[in-house]
Amino acid sequence: MRYSIGDLARRTGLTIKAVRFYSDHGLVPPSGRNTAGHRRYDDAALARLDLVRTLRDLGLGLAVIRRIVDGEATIADVAATHAEALETEIRVLRLRQAVWTAVAARGSTTEETRLVHELARLSEMECISDFLADTLGDRPELAGIARTLTPELPEDPAPGQLDAWIELAGLTRDDDFRAAVRRLADQHEIGLRRDLAAEVRDAVEPALAAGVDPGSPQAAAIVDGLGRGAGELREWLGVVHDPRRERYLELLAVINGWAAPESLTPALDWLTAAVAS
To answer: What's the CA angle centered on 107, arms 102 and 111, to 5 degrees?
Structure first.
């Protein structure tokens, strides 16, 4: 059966202008022309146009639709990609809703202005996953660490949680901090494992409590007991002994409603002095 542009418009519910647009862009090519030179379409074109309309209703762009109707991509593949993108968008929208709700609840004009400004900056990075993907990469062995470093702002955050989110988001935009986290991830990969922090805490905190001088022979024995060379420990300390790392963990705990993490700074300060002695 042969259809005119008007016939396709009536059968699909589209305007004649829309049908002509899709035809002009090659998404629904005509199967021929009548004696007057008017375009005519067959049943395959009608089915193709109906698919184009459905995909447009789902929010797909013309380039993606062209790949699907030309058989270069399957709907299943495209659907999986868009479902993932929508999940990210939903997370961002929930964050924005939480921020705007908090802004509405505040009485200070100055505070509202600050929050609106920070909201605009947050929309640039979209979500913390950008920071984690950039610093930890797609490394299966770091997947657990990535999960523990992911903040989950509640839908109805307390003022302190919102402030913590804004400060944490600022940290993640710090290129120098990102580089430091990448170095920490690289150390984990080459064997300077993050459980070294627990070893240091267990070995150093009793020394701190007993008032052991980091320059003493007793301190040197504690350093030797860690089983790493001085150079390796200095490298590790150069990455781990960063106040921004500890601040990230403190803010993360506030946002996620966790207990405040125990500070490792006193132990790292002592170990730094002991290694330098």
So the answer is: 70
φ/ψ of 39, rounded to 5, equals -70, 145
Q: What is the pTM of this model?
A: 0.60
Phi-psi region of 157 (alpha: psi -120 to 50; beta: other; left: phi over 0): beta
pLDDT in tens, 23-79: 998 889 998 888 888 999 999 999 989 999 988 888 888 888 888 888 888 888 888
pLDDT tens figures, 211-267? 999 999 999 999 999 988 888 888 889 888 999 999 999 999 999 999 999 899 999
Compute the C-alpha angle 53/20/25, nearest 5°: 80
| Cα 30–chain centre separation | 44
- Of 148, 170, 173, the C-alpha closest to 249 is 148
User: Cα(237)–Cα(269) distance, rounded to whole angstroms?
Assistant: 9
Max CA distance (Å), the chain: 103
| Residue 223 near residue 236 (C-beta atoms within 8 A) | no
What would the two tokens of residue 201 be? Answer: 């805490």
- CA–CA–CA angle 52, 57, 61 (5° rounding): 65
